[in-house]
Model the fold of this input.
Amino acid sequence: ACRELSIPVVSGNVSFYNECESMRVYPTPTIGMVGYAGVNDTIKSEFGVEEIIYLIGKQIHNDSKIGSSLYQMNCFDFLGGEIDEIDTELEKNLEKTIFKLRDKAILNGAIDVSEGGIAGALLEGLFNANSGFSGNLITTEDPLVSLFGEITGRYIVSTKNENELEKTCLKYNVPILKLGKTNNSNKISFNGYEFNLSDLKKTYETVIEKDINNVWR
Done:
C-alpha cells in the first residue's frame, strides 16, 4: 500500500502487550511518516455556517464489512468480524480530488471518516465551527450502520460551490453523496432525529475523564 500510494512511512510499531489482571488496552499501531505543507496547503477540519456537506468516497451498504469498529464494540460489546478492504485506486483518486478542490478554493473543510463513522466525523466538524446541520445521513436498513459503521476511503467535506465539487469528483471517478447543509441552529437534524449540539459536545469533551474515573475509582 505504501508503494502504491507513494507514502513515505519511515517507521512503525504495534504494541500488543498492554494489559493487567482487570483490563487490557487494544493493540495500538503507531506509524511514523514524513511530509510537508505550506500555509496555503492546509485544509480546515471544520464546517462553517451555510455550507453544503458531502460524503465523498466509498458508500456504506447493508452488507458492508464493519468489523472491529467502535460501533460494534459499544453497541454489542464484541470486537471482531470481517473488516473492509482498502481500495488503493480509490484512495489515490480521493487524494487527487481533495487537492484539486483545495487548489481551486472550492473546499471549505474536510475530515476523514474513521472512528465513529460519518456521525463522528460530521460532529467533529460542527463542534470545531460551532455550527448546526440539517440533512439526511441514513442510507441503510439499520440506521446505526449508516451513522457509525467504519469503512475505508471516505471523507466528509464542505463547500459553497456544489457544481464545481460535483464536477471534480466525477472527473476523478470518486463517488459522492450530498448529506445536507450547515446552519446556526445549535442542533443536528437528520432523517427525523434531532439532537442538541451543546449536549453532545459536553459528552464528547468529558468522555475520557468519565471513562478513566470509572476504571480507576
User: Anything to note?
Assistant: The longest helix spans residues 197-216. The CA atoms of residues 8 and 33 lie 6 Å apart. The two ends are 43 Å apart (CA to CA). The helical segments are 2-5, 70-76, 88-103, 117-129, 143-148, 162-171, 197-216.
